[in-house]
Amino acid sequence: MAPELSMEITEQQQFLKAGKIDEVALNDFKRETMFHRQAQSAVMRGIELLIKHNIPTHRPEDYFAEMFKSDEHMQKVRHSLLQRKTALEQTEKIRRIRQEKKLAKEKRVAAVQEKHKQKRELNENIKKFRKGLRNDLDFLETDGGKKNKKQDGGNSEKKKNLTRSQHKRKGKDAKYGFGGKKRGMKENTKESTFGGSGKASKEKMQNMD
């Protein structure tokens, strides 16, 4: 037997006889716990030193991706995806603008058609009124096919009292306008006769004499 092994056996026998047993050395759970705490303390100390020297202690987000593809390749993929997204957004924007223009054009066309329709209906009503097919002038007080109730309510009684000739006169005034006062407009005056003021007229009369 080797001298070292013989010495170790002798020491263990002496410990057993004296009742001195190293509980930690003989207890596996306590021994593993001590190893764990020692490793944890070393890790915490190491992290403090790494942070102190500005050395990264966390894995990057693409750490596992780097295991399959290089960062350069992933940047190309990212750039391609961004280009595709931008192209889709641009296409959607153009489509939306075209749709808005189309709707605006349809509204303009509808407004023009409605205006022509109202004008055509007005002309037809005027023709009917001239031919005596209708006696009222309600169509002259309409706005887009709807009566102006505020004005129509106050004038309804007056319309009933108007004669047919008065209705006809009112229709012509509404279409062609009211000419105003004409009596005495073509009468000669002193100024129009002599072409100037009174003084100039006297001089002209003296020259004629």
From TrEMBL:
Pfam short name (any one)? Ebp2
Q: Could you tell me where the Basic residues compositional bias lies? A: 161-172
Q: Where in the cell is it found?
A: Nucleus, Nucleolus
GO-annotated cellular components: nuclear periphery; nucleolus; preribosome, large subunit precursor
Domain of life of the organism encoding this protein: Eukaryota
Main location (coarse class):
nucleus
Quote the biased-composition stretches of kind Basic and acidic residues, using this chain's numbering.
138-160, 200-209
- Record family assignment: Belongs to the EBP2 family.
List the protein's name. Putative rRNA-processing protein EBP2
